[in-house]
Design brief:
Layout lengths: L1 H5 L4 H5 L7 H4 L5 H4 L8 H29 L6 H14 L1 H7 L2 H38 L2 H7 L11 H19 L5 H31 L3 E3 L13 E3 H20 L5 H24 L11 H25 L1
Antiparallel strand pairs: 1-2
Helix pairs in contact: 6-8, 7-8, 8-10, 8-11, 8-12, 10-11, 10-14, 11-12, 11-13, 11-14, 12-13, 13-14
Length: 323
């Protein structure tokens, strides 16, 4: 009887009995993080999402930096790479810039730097930067003594846009000639040579003048060799002349080491700079500040000086090539 009961047709139903599923309950259960979003940083799910977002942001930032580096290293240089490079360098170097330039002078220098990078890349920019650093350092030498003698540059040697433009006028012409490919490949190296020569000329002039004012024992007027006070227009000294020669050699060496010119080209830049500076001294002694030539101020003389240095370098190179 018991056996027959166990063998009843309902028995299989008991063996196939399944526990009720509670998924419909667990799926609707809400955690405290759902009620209090401010605790979501403790929620593993939210933390995972935040980690992914942070990772994406880091990767994105790295991508921006990588693209910026690639842009700066563009070869040949582009306007975008020139602008970005100068923004970075002028931002980092602002403490040094304000010691040698006024606010408007920095603006003019930024324009010069952008044009230079676009035409000649980092090597051209480095040449101009070297000129600025050495020229500023020479201007600051014995500043108190120069101020007491009344021969120091205005604003503690901080030069304005007129000085920047006057000093770089010939270099900017070379930049535009190079960017526009004037003369083709045959003249491209000449524009670079003229560019280097212009800044060698101006640096030599600046250093010879500032060192001559500070250390020149005897100062002669270049037209008559009459002894005159330090700082007289057109005056030269042995100390200043030697310092100016060394400065032009140093900057020409920078041009050579950065591949802008070869050894003969560097020598041409030094020689052209000395001839141009002698011509500038002649102009200063005979015409500058004289009646009828009041317009011939330092900025105008700077333009003449650097232009003469560039032109002489090109002519000397052409003569050498033809011979």
């Amino acid at each position: 009887m018991a056996f027959s009961t166990l063998s009843s047709p309902a028995l299989p139903l008991l063996f196939h009995y399944q526990k009720p599923k509670l998924s419909f309950l667990t799926s609707n259960i809400q955690t405290p993080f759902d009620y209090f979003p401010q605790l979501s940083t403790l929620n593993p799910k939210h933390h995972h999402k935040m980690s992914r977002t942070s990772s994406i942001k880091v990767v994105s930032d790295l991508g921006i930096v990588e693209r910026a580096i690639q842009l700066v290293q563009s070869s040949p240089p582009t306007w975008q790479s020139a602008l970005l490079s100068n923004i970075i360098i002028f931002t980092v170097g602002s403490p040094l810039l304000v010691t040698g330039l006024s606010a408007s002078g920095i603006g003019a220098a930024f324009l010069l730097g952008t044009l230079t990078w676009r035409a000649f890349g980092f090597s051209g920019f480095l040449l101009v930067a070297t000129y600025f650093v050495i020229g500023t350092a020479a201007t600051k030498v014995k500043m108190a003594q120069k101020e007491a003698q009344g021969v120091a540059e205005k604003r503690k040697g901080r030069r304005g846009p007129g000085s920047v433009i006057g000093s770089s006028a010939a270099g900017c012409v070379c930049v535009f000639l190079s960017i526009n490919g004037v003369g083709g490949e045959a003249f491209s190296r000449l524009w670079v040579l003229a560019f280097v020569a212009s800044f060698c000329t101006k640096l030599s002039d600046t250093v010879s003048s500032e060192i001559g004012k500070a250390y020149g024992k005897t100062t002669y007027l270049v037209t008559t060799f009459k002894v005159v006070p330090r700082g007289t227009e057109g005056a030269v000294s042995a100390e200043g002349t030697l310092a100016g020669l060394l400065a032009s050699v140093l900057l020409a060496s920078v041009g050579y080491l950065t591949g802008q010119t070869n050894v003969p080209g560097a020598a041409i830049c030094v020689i052209a700079a000395q001839i141009a500076n002698f011509g500038e001294s002649l102009i200063g002694a005979s015409l500058q500040e004289k009646e009828g030539f009041r317009w011939l101020n330092n900025d105008v003389v700077n333009v003449i000086n650097v232009s003469l240095g560039s032109i002489l370098a090109v002519l000397m190179q052409k003569i050498i090539l033809q011979s």
